[in-house]
């Protein structure tokens, strides 16, 4: 047993998230020999399900035994030749991490600045693209929801800018923290490549990453001389699972994702997103109440940019978010996330995506409130009742 | 899948209760052939664990594939010959059910009346015993915690009465709804027989009942001519599991109970009981707040009699507890219990025993509050914050 | 972990049997509150599935948290008033056990003798019935397949005798060891009551027994004054699960049986029976080869009486079947059964029913052969190849 | 359900292999937030366990959400700068695949030829090394057990050659198919880097790869300018799990590997290896018998080179191994592997490593024999009895 404490442990990290029983049980099936047609059936369903969820008919799906950083490496190595330029609009810790990884892989990165609390500066992106009259920028790498800042950016606005400027850069979108929680359509935003991972809105354990690439992206990949093999989309376009996965497929996680996608479509994508909106409103209502004590506030200043997946709460100098997390987890059975990068020690984050319902978030918020009160952080009252009121309003 | 709704389903019936993963996983082991020494190991550990939990060194443990009513039938058929008299002190629906079952088995039952909201009338018990100068009463059947009324009675007071009157009746205690939640010691209360079941404080699925019988009870059993076989303790005193269980043992549930007892002793019995007290205080704080709206009140009028396992909330004429339950379960993922017998349609009950922790009960209470508000039941405010305050106070 | 040995443990006891993953996973669902309509759905499906499998349209199904002996007790207490007479045709240890239990419950039992190696002596049954001109015999209790002798009797022949003699006794059939393995139709054999249990051909853990009773049996039950409550069919005829089960239903085992019945109907009852016939032929081929060594032989002398569920192998004076079992289990990971009653120390038994396929029985037979060779029991050669030949022949 | 067929499915692919219940259950634990100290505990135990199993005290362990090809990519990108030279001794399909991948990553590869049926040509390796007087060869990439040919090579002989020639090349060993089945000691063979994967002798699902690198290898890595990030050991040397895994760790598979290593050490490494030797002898005895029919033979001509993990059986022109596999899987519930690369259509392979015991391999061999007989492949008789004889001999 990894947890010896009694009762359900409330996992409110913004990834990994709570894994539903149906997914756990799918993963408890024994593996199969690689020629078993049932394995191909699973892979086919996962690919078709991801395409349906991403709203793309024609993109190629590439699945990796990897986390989100592995999916980044796949995208970088397939699309960016050493020395080529990428524009990374600032969204917080994750846009910066992606930029750093791109540089490590030999790319040249132009960043637009991230102002704490704000989403992508679309005007800055437009300026950079307009200045790039030689079209040196081969791709824009945009993080839809930055897990660290809990801010979602407006992908349609970015698309509009690319169109307005008539810039041919590939539009590459990271939906790791948004897929399954926020509305996303590869078709609508005109993304050429989308990448994600299993352990957030997809309700699976970590260990599976994916990329979806359209024809333009495939052409760029074909022409890209970067040495690569494991990640190489050219080799992975195949009917044979052993080539699709460059070796043995991660069957167990695929069985899990197959079941998770079935859960999503069984509930209905619209219902899943509406559920996330309701849960988000409950969290926001509670944080707004707490904020009235003067010691906490939403990191995301614009309510419209607050993500459906996670909420970062900035704390004042007196509070200690890492001690809060330990208290919440070890005494109140609620696991939260902390601040990353420049936000370390200054925020705590409440994950609220995936396999979640109303009493789960109420239990989480109650545990957070208890921890805040034990820490004597001044908070406003009525937070839980405000969350219940959102629930009652529906 | 039996549940298609997303997220953890909050089970707050007062039996069955939430089954911990360790118990579920123990039950996922394959059965064994009946001569496998590992099976005897499991049975030995379960018997020793129950004796430790009941605080008895010498009692015989009899385990049945049965629910609590089966355990009653075992006790009745082993102890009571047709026509013999039993005193059943009134505790609510369950004392009455036990009395009815005893009568159906041929016993003669004397009842002390149950006054709604009150625990066992110890003075009435004393009167009955004093009047029984011929010692026709062969046993007193006392329910420790009546699951329907959510009231616990004072077993030591009953013991004191038996001693004061010097009545030789067997003292038989039903701990189905209290064991693992409230302090109980077979030794301290001088019980001759104790019976229980798996699906409440013992955190297992329903299907396993047990009785513990001391030497006096065994002697009564030996002398009892009632025709019986499956339940018969005389046949079940054996080293062979096949005889202990009058046939094939319910191995899976035994594996589960073995794991559940290990969890209890790993946490520590005192810690388990203290956790139940904390959770109880949280529930009581919330119900007290709600009550200020004038439409609800504790069924148990004496706070000292309110059980650590379950809380029955009486509702006024305007409210519909069965509709409340449906709403809470189907819209808010919180399963409650309703009223039984004379309480049907007049109470709802919140189970809070077994594998439970703070955010679980907060989620439950939040779901109940939401359902009450949707039903427009007038309730006082601040219930959830009051529960959190108990948690913070520790 | 109950088993620390590596690899799949081959369980070839004739109950409990190997539990399929789908059943294990169904049982890993959390319990439900007793008013949850999903619980009624499970119970309805289980009742309908048992009726379909038993081939009865009108019988009432009564499910018990109990083993097969509990189902016997239910049948005895509902049908037989103290002093009434029952005819129990001899089939081996289980007919005798049933007779003993009936006597303990106050019944008067007439037995036809069991000749070791033979099935029910139909002529003897006919004689007893013909002699009973006053129709004192209220019921015939027939074991379809005696697990201890591994012999199945001809129920249609018994039916024919009852009809020929025009005896009004209830025909009560124990299908504990045959249901799901051998063809059985309540309608065809004109059984008034059928009883069974979960842990054999039904592929569930032990702990669930059932009885099916037709209108004549229900009328007998109604008129029967025997004191009873837990087992009482009169009380259990109800729409409410709490009354159907005389208290809390054993939800987990019901979920398991629901899944098991779905597996049976998904495979197809005819296919399930054909699979058992194939496996039986494989076992018989191996035992026939071993027998040529002179030290072993089929306990059942008539090949037609050898059951589809289990095969009892009689051993000569030199062999020690209990040591063989220990050797097979602890060294070769194959669990067998031994001899019961008068057969103790003289037979070992190979269970081959339920969730079983060809390589499972080959692994079992290989382990048995290894254990026999280690014990230096003289056996003929070619057993495993003979089993494979049956498999190839299909 | 992925498998609708009744009974245990016998998985005898040489990876993935049967996953024990303890591993499955460990993986059924919910994930944790990334700061939960329990996660670090799991990672620490896995690293320590792998070091113990590999017999190295000082090597760094790097764990990847990846399959074996991912582990190859990690090793190549960390050790080999573009244009540098690697010697890959021929062992079959997997040495060739590794060579191709190294070339795709920019390396220059010298191969020693693989002669079908033989292990590494140590004399050829020595010649190449002696000729490399300028020490252009920076590493020797040796596959311990080639899963495709089922041949193990003599690593100590390779070590002796490196020492004799005094060549400074790094000695990099792939133990994907041997670890947990064959004796291996990083210390004894003087390997600088070892790589493996989860889904073979380590009894876990596929999806987890690892590399162990000693100080010399770390120094080469430090100096290697190859652009890389996800695989980069320099970044992964950290106390923080998020850096160790370049993002979210694959918690579920780590929980599984933790449990699997515990199983190995609980059984004892020597016992695990002895068990594999016994199972191997059983397989060899059966294949030797079958071979007498003239249509089959061991691919590995030297008995000493036949691996403890898998046995490749070469079939004559008349036989169709792919049809055999389908027959074995779909009719007899035994899953085998086929031929890869130049062996496609000419061999079938029996995996016999990991969580395996005697009746499992007997069931497998019985299923294979049945399939061969259905295919009318001429085979010698007595195969299963010969396997049992090995078992009896112990």
UniProtKB/TrEMBL annotation, chains A, B, C, D:
GO terms for biological process: glycine biosynthetic process, by transamination of glyoxylate. Keywords: Aminotransferase, Pyridoxal phosphate, Transferase. InterPro entries: Aminotrans_V_dom, PyrdxlP-dep_Trfase, PyrdxlP-dep_Trfase_major, PyrdxlP-dep_Trfase_small, SP_NH2Trfase/AEP_transaminase. Its EC number is 2.6.1.45. SUPFAM superfamilies: PLP-dependent transferases (SSF53383). GO terms for molecular function: alanine-glyoxylate transaminase activity; L-serine-glyoxylate transaminase activity; L-serine-pyruvate transaminase activity. The modification N6-(pyridoxal phosphate)lysine is found at residue 200. The keyword Transferase applies. Residues 10-339 form the Aminotransferase class V domain. Its cofactor is pyridoxal 5'-phosphate. It holds the Pfam family Aminotran_5. Substrate binds at residue 349. Belongs to the class-V pyridoxal-phosphate-dependent aminotransferase family. This is Serine--glyoxylate aminotransferase. It comes from Polaromonas vacuolata. The lineage of its organism: Bacteria, Pseudomonadati, Pseudomonadota, Betaproteobacteria, Burkholderiales. The gene is sgaA.
């Amino acid at each position: 047993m990894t947890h010896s404490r009694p009762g359900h442990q409330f996992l409110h990290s913004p990834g990994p998230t709570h894994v539903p029983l149906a997914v756990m049980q799918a993963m408890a099936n024994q593996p199969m020999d690689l020629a078993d047609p049932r394995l191909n059936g699973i892979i086919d369903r996962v690919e078709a399900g991801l395409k349906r969820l991403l709203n793309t008919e024609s993109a190629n799906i590439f699945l990796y035994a990897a986390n989100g950083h592995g999916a980044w490496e796949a995208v970088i190595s397939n699309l960016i030749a050493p020395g080529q330029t990428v524009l990374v609009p600032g969204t917080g810790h994750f846009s910066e991490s992606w930029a750093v990884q791109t540089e490590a892989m030999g790319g040249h990165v132009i960043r637009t600045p991230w102002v704490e609390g704000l989403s992508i500066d679309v005007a800055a992106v437009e300026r950079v693209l307009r200045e790039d009259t030689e079209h040196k920028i081969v791709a824009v790498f945009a993080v839809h929801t930055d897990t660290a800042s809990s801010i979602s950016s407006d992908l349609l606005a970015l698309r509009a800018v690319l169109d307005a400027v008539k810039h041919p850069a590939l539009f590459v979108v990271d939906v790791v923290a948004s897929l399954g929680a926020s509305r996303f359509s590869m078709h609508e935003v005109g993304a050429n490549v989308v990448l994600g991972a299993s352990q957030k809105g997809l309700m699976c354990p970590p260990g599976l990453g994916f990329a979806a690439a359209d024809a333009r992206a495939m052409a760029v990949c074909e022409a890209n001389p970067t040495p690569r093999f494991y990640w190489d989309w050219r080799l992975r376009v195949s009917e044979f699972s052993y080539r699709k996965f460059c070796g043995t497929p991660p069957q167990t996680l695929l069985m899990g994702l197959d079941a998770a996608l079935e859960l999503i479509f069984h509930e209905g994508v619209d219902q899943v997103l509406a559920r996330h909106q309701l849960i988000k409103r409950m969290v926001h209502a509670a944080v707004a109440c707490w904020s009235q004590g003067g010691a906490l506030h939403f990191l995301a200043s614009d309510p419209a940019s607050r993500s459906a997946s996670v909420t970062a709460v900035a704390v004042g100098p007196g509070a200690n978010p890492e001690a809060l997390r330990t208290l919440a987890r070890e005494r109140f059975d609620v696991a939260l996330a902390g601040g990353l990068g420049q936000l370390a020690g200054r925020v705590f984050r409440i994950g609220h995506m995936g396999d979640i319902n109303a009493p789960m978030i109420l239990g989480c918020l109650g545990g957070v409130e208890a921890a805040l009160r034990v820490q004597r952080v001044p908070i406003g009252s009525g937070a839980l009742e405000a969350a219940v009121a959102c629930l009652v309003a529906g």
